[in-house]
From TrEMBL:
GO BP, sorted A to Z: cilium assembly
Protein name as catalogued: Uncharacterized protein
InterPro entries tied to this protein: CFAP54
A Pfam family of this chain: CFAP54_N
Originating organism: Ridgeia piscesae
Amino acid sequence: MAVMLKSSAVSAVSKGTKSSFYSGYGGKPNPVFQALEQEVDAYKTFMQKRVGRRSKRPKDEASSLASDRLFDIWNKYESRLPKMSYQKRLLEMGDFLSSIKEFNLALWQCYGRYLTSFGEVNVEEITSVEQFKQEFFPDGFETEDAGFTFRALMGRSICTYEVVRMNDPKLLNTESVDKCLQLLSFLRLVTQVILPKESLYWLVYNGTIHIYSISRHLMSFGHSAAVLEYLLCLL
C-alpha cells in the first residue's frame, strides 16, 4: 500500500498536477501533498546530517547545494499548492532552518521568499504604523494570512540580525551597528502592531526577547546610549 501511495505521489509531481485536482480523492492522501512532504522530510534529514558534519564536508560538495535543493522544491510546488498551504510550509521550513542555525537559508529561501509577494520593500526603512500597514496589510490585520505575514517579518528580522552577528560579532563596522539599530526599530514597530492581537501573543514574546538580545549585544560593545529607547519600550 505504501509503495502504491508513493508511486501515485511521484506520478502526480512528474505530471505537474495541482493539489486541487485531488480534492475529494475518496479519503485517500492527496498525492501532491504527499510528494511534497516526502521531499521536505528528505531535505530536513539532509540538512541535519550536513550541520552535523559542518567542519568536514566533502570537498566535492558545492557550497550552494542546500540552497539549490530547497529552491528547486519551492519552484516545483508553488503553483501546485493552495496559497496558504505553500506559505505555511515556507514558514515551517524557515523555523526549522533557524533552529539549526542556517540563518542565511532561512532568510533568503523562506522568510524572504514569502515576502517577495509584497514587491521590493526595504523593511528596515519602514518607521511608521501607517507605512507598515500600507506595505504589508492594505486590507487590514484580520485577513486570512495576516498571522503568516507577521511571522515572516519577524523571522526575516531575526535571521538578518543573526547573519550580521556571524559576520561581525564584535560590531566593528559602522554598517553592522546601523543595521542592528534599524532592526531594533522595526522589531519594536512590529511588536507594537501585534500587541492587540491575542492570537499572536507568542510573536510579541519573541519580539521582546530579540529586542533585548540585540540591545545587550550592542551595549557590550559601547552602544548603550543608542539602545536605551528600545529597552524602555520593554518596560
